[in-house]
Structure formats: structure tokens, C-alpha cells
Amino acid sequence: MRIDVHAHLWSTKYLDLLARLGNDRTSVHRGLGAGETDDELRKRFELMDRAGIRMQVLSVSPASPHFERQADAVEAARLANDEYAALTRRFPERFRAFAALPLPHTQSALAELGRALDGLGMVGVAVTTSVMGRTLADPAFHPIYAELDRRQSVLYIHPAGCGADSPLINQHRIVWSVGAPIEDTISIMHLVIAGIPQRYPGMKIIASHLGGLLPMVVRRVDDHIDYEAPDTPEKPSLAFRRLWYDTVGHNHVPALRAAVEALGADRLLLGTDFPYQAGELFQAAVDYVRRAGLSEQDVEAILDRNAAALFGLTAGS
Q: What whole-number percentage of the chain has pLDDT above 90?
């Protein structure tokens, strides 16, 4: 059962609301064919069918409902989740969804998490690698992780697109090319140093983009952690194996191979990053797994087994 865990969809209504509430970065998500109109959905399903993808798990990140004013965040999160719930009811064989949370407002986020998972059928929640400049390891967010742990549910992490709040990234036109995988790496390391994966083992964490730079630095992090962050509760290489990682590597075979060798094929889940990899790139996002020289067993696990097992989905689901 081929499931794409990294796919986006934004309605015009949702993006207009974000813009009205003060999010000035919605233009990058418009006009890409990632809306909810019948024509956009038809073309999306055609792409999925050609790639053999049965289902996508949708997320609004990085266009997330994060606002300083709590009422604004709640309004945007509820709209996003209601729209996703309508889509998953309309197309139950094609879509599942991660809930959007009204962060950084923890109590409102917990309320929306409960509504989305209990009433709307969401399969987990999606967050960005940082929330308005705050690390995901912030103790204020731990009640969310405790609830996901209790529910044995999923936390999907996607770059915020803020260049890790670094002017060396944001002022040099490398926010998405380099900044995004750096954000992935930083967010995972913050969680690992804080012991989040170990403390909440029932929460299933999915990180984007092959874990960013992690496949290249596993040994380096292990070797440096004892003197740089000696209070880290477990060896990072062990903590990394508690997470899952999507395969969005922009069809770069060496990166995929490094992730398989460093993190394990059993921890990799198919991702396409639709609509940012569309057309031929969408197909290539699947095909590069096949041409990476992996064993047939590893290819089958990455493309067709791991995500279904993680979400508890079967062909009849």
C-alpha cells in the first residue's frame, strides 16, 4: 500500500485567511495546483496513479496556523482541519491528514488535537521545525507530546521556512535550498538533547527530507555529545532510530543511500513534497528509490510497507 507522507494542500480560502491575519508568505503556495478544486484534485490523482501512490497524508505546513493572537491561531487551525476532514471523507481511499495546531498556544492546541483526532479522523499532527522562533523542545510544548504519546499517534515535522532564524541564511537566498534541511537537523537535535523521543516513546515522530544533515553526522554527533551536551539522556545514534524520515531528497541517490545506511531502511517513508515536486519530478521521487541500488526488500519496505505499518492502514482501510 503506497502512501505519500509528505504532501501539501491549501485552499484559497485558507491562504486568504492566513494573509488576512498577517501571514505575508502565502504567495509561495498559490498557483501550484495544490488546491481543492475539482480540476486540481483530478490532476493530483492522475499523478498519484502514474506513480502507483494509493494515498497521501496531507499537511498545511509550512503555511501553519501560528499567530501570537490565540483567537487567530484557533480560527485558522479549525478551518484547515475542517477542510481536510471534508476531503478525507470525500476521498477516503486517497487522503488522510495531519491536523494543524494553533501554536504556540498549548492549551488551545491540545483542544484542537483532541477535536481533530477524535472527531475528524486525523492520523496525527503536523508542526514546523520551530514555532515563531521557539524550539520544539520548549517545555511549553511537552503536554502536546505527552498526549500524542498517550494516543500512540504521529508528530510530523516540516521546516518552517525561516532559515533557522539566521541572517546568514535568510539574507543570502538559501532559505529553502540549504536552510530547510538545516532546520530539519536542528529541530531533531533539540528533541534528542531534550530526551523527547525517549521520554515519549509512543509518539511516532516523522522528520522531513531524510532527516536533513543527520545521515552525514551521526558519528560526529555521538563523538561530540558527551562534552557539548553531557545531559543528553541517550546516545544520539540510538535516539535517531526512534524516529522515521521521509524520502524527499530531490532524487539524489547518494543522499538516500546515506540515509538507508545511517538510519535504516525500516525508518524511511515515501514522500514526494507535492506540489514542489510535480510532473516528472513527482514520478522521480518514487523512481529514485528503485534506482538507488538497494535490496528489493528495502525498496519494497520504503515504498509500500513502512508507512502503512506506521499508520496501521491496510488495503481495505
A: 98
Do residues 159 and 129 make contact, with C-beta atoms less than 8 angstroms apart? yes
Is 123 in contact with 96 (CB distance < 8 Å)?
Answer: yes
Write the pLDDT tens digit of every residue in 39-70: 999 999 999 999 999 999 999 999 999 999 99
- Look at residue 131 and give its three-state secondary structure: strand
Closest CA to 250 of 280, 226, 223, 224: 280
Cis status, amide bond into 92, omega within 30 of 0: no
Dihedral (Cα; 176, 263, 128, 54), 10-degree rounding: 90
**What is the rounded CA–CA span in Å between residue 174 and residue 313?**
37
**DSSP type of residue 29:** G
CA distance 269 to 76: 28
Between the alpha carbon of residue 51 and those of residues 9, 31, 209, the distances in Å are 18, 22, 19
Distance CA 57, CA 8 (A): 8
Q: Per-residue pLDDT tens for 11-30?
A: 999 999 999 999 999 999 99
Q: Give the tens place of pLDDT for each residue, 237-264.
A: 999 999 999 999 999 999 999 999 999 9
> Considering the entire predicted model, what is its pTM?
0.97
H-type alpha helices, 141-274: 142-151, 167-170, 180-193, 196-199, 214-228, 236-240, 253-263
Query: Residue 317: pLDDT above 70?
Result: no
Closest CA to 270 of 295, 240, 298: 298
Confidence of residue 316 (pLDDT cuts 50, 70, 90): low
CB atoms under 10 Å from CB of 90, counted, come to 11
Q: Which residue has the cell 538507508?
A: 260
d(CA 42, CA 266): 32
Beginning with the edge strand found earlier in the chain, give each strand of the sheet holding 244-246 in spatial order.
Answer: 99-100, 124-128, 154-158, 204-207, 244-246, 268-269
Q: State the CB neighbour count (10 A cutoff) for residue 300.
A: 14
